[in-house]
Amino acid sequence: MRGAVAAPLGRDRRRVRYPARPGRMDVGQHGYRPTAVVVGAGIAGLAAATGLAERGFRVEVVEREHHLGGRVGGWTEQLTDGTPVGMNRGFHAFFAQYYNLRKLLSRSDPGLSRLRRLDDYPLIDAAGHRDTFRNLPRTPPWNALAFAMRSPTFRMRDLVRMDARAAAPLAAVSVPDIYHQLDHLDAETFLRRINFPEAARHLAFEVFSRSFFVEPQQMSAAELAAMFHIYFLGSSEGLVFDVAQDNFDVSLWTPLADHLTAPATPTRPGGVEFHTGVTIAEIDSSADGFVLRDDTGATLEADAVVLAVDVTGLRTIVGRSPTLGDSEWRTRIGELGSAPAFAVLRLWLDRRLRADRPSFLGTGNLDPLDNISILDRYEHTAAVWANKHGGSVVELHAYAAAEETPAPAEQRALRGKLLARLHEIYPETAAARIVGEHMLWRQDCPRFAPGDFARRPGVETPHRRLMLAGDGIRVDLPVALMERAATTGWLAADLLSREWNGAGHALQTVPSRGRSALLRTFATRERRF
Description:
The protein is of the alpha+beta class. 31% of the residues lie in helices and 20% in strands. It contains 16 helices and 22 strands. The protein has helices at 43-53, 99-105, 142-150, 156-161, 164-171, 177-182, 187-193, 198-209, 221-233, 248-261, 311-319, 327-335, 380-389, 408-425, 481-499, 517-524, and strands spanning 16-18, 35-39, 58-63, 74-78, 84-88, 94-95, 115-118, 123-125, 130-131, 241-244, 273-276, 280-286, 289-294, 299-302, 304-307, 341-349, 360-364, 371-374, 392-402, 434-442, 466-468, 507-509. The strands form six sheets. It has a seven-stranded mixed sheet. Strands 11-3-2-15-21 form a five-stranded parallel sheet, with helices on one face. Strands 6-10-7 form a three-stranded antiparallel sheet. Helix 5 packs across helix 16 (517-524). It is globular and about 65 Å long.
């Protein structure tokens, strides 16, 4: 039987390719095989583990949860009748320009057959405006212009009224220079200064900014501009995305874990060990290596370590590990912050939703609701349940729902508000009986507030064999969210491989500068706000 045909990792001819550093493909081939411990099995940790295993390291992955995938993890819950159902932390979009994430997923799914394309994801707001990404041109700047011109919230006179000179950084982003220009400013202030129409802010920019789990007034304007570059003016991959065909554990992480733990072959690394349900409490470092101690007192020894944990976990480990890093680095770790808490409410309903409802709907200015997903339209496990019961599986997401996880009474109040919004937007759900539901609250996403960038720690640390990885770690490349996590994971593996003269891995990104030379020239003349 022939193997699956590898899916192309990008169609944009102007995407940037970073060739792999030359070196040994197997660092242990002629002698000692170094041991690397990766703390955290989210996207960043799994990318680091894959990169290290492919260069011949003995790799152990330690994960606090009992499942893999981190914030994109999936697990099984039970309804009140005992039916097992899939659960996760909410909808995730796998954009075509997530080259390095797709590279990771292709290790166990060369054709990326476990992803499927959504042909549209409409956006609506409280005034009844509706935007769509269907049939937009892929090439910048025509994609953004077409989106704006057909949007009911963006009229020609709005374009004329905008302060073109002040808005120039949006159209000519250069990474990391955009952070030096705009990171001191919050996104809402920036959009007001350029006179961006208020309705369009709610329907477009606010929807995207809240995907960082934060309100626009608490988000760096530089992050907003970089995001605009990555998804609109920096890439011609298009504005639609893929979703996982099943719960994340089934579609993504169990196959990757099977790939990494299988016996090694000449074409597959294998031999990675996973320790789930284990929390690393502290790490002792010396010139010769590391000793990691978990919360039961058990230890692991390592020649190299990647810390791919969330912000709170990183602060905790470093705070309890006085031999890690120097005082300046430790201070910067301590300054890292988390975004506000978010909530996910998943409902199993006893009836179908209307056939014309989209699989995913983004909302603007319809607090507390940020999006609605109809999971049985694209997720296999949900579809099986819906077909068996003649029902629907619906998920409601509230980003930046509270500054911190609220008390139970406030959680119940938010649940009620989410249901009210669902009934308002999809009236047929008002008569539906809730067969089962699961609601979760989390507050572990990194903060991207004004002024954070300059102090944000990067992949490298004061210890040459200790690396950081994650979507909250600084990397001076045009990547964000899941793609930032994957990119820093690959980079962490490559920097450690270098210590043993190992080869790197090729990476890709959207262009690091705006695609229009005219707009770039105009932007360089703009004053700093």
